[in-house]
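lol ok so funny story. i was supposed to be doing the assay writeup but got distracted and ended up predicting the structure for this chain instead. priorities right. anyway since i did it might as well share w the group, maybe its usefull for someone
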Amino acid sequence: MHSGNVGHAQDLDSLVRSATFLRDRDDLRIVIAGFGARHGEMVALANRLEVEGTVRFLPYQKRERLPLSLSSADVHVVGLAKGLAGYVVPSRLYGILSAGRPVIVAADDSSETARLVLEVGCGVVIPPARPDLLARVIREFADGAYPLDTMGRRGREYVVNEADSVVAMERYRALVREMLAA
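and the output, tada:
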């Protein structure tokens, strides 16, 4: 699943194109939930590639339904267009990890998103703009090559222990106190 903005930074072309390598898998669906500047373009690409049976588009999910939506996927894909490392950190990653779901990050390995996922052990990182490789990893996830529950649990534990708003605010307060003391 991709859940969130359907815009220029997400490299959703690769996700839609990955479906062409997964045509033989009736048990797999790629869900793109959200809306944005490239939504129509992504729907047209799915139609042109004739992957409408594999790729499904859902509307934007309201905030109160987001936990249900995010937890409905087995694996999430966070794609970052090539060259955006250091400029964009998708905030939806924290929602995915909160839902206890593993993630495939398709981004430059120097990105903060890739670094976090590798450090926490909550997913797999691949280079951006590689639909063939993305399809292979999706297939491996579906075939049980990765411990989905373990990866999801690690992500959830990270959010609770390191990225929760209470934890973040206390760290911010400590930083301000430290700066004021100096």
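The chain has a mean pLDDT of 93. The CA atoms of residues 108 and 127 lie 6 Å apart.
back to the writeup now i swear
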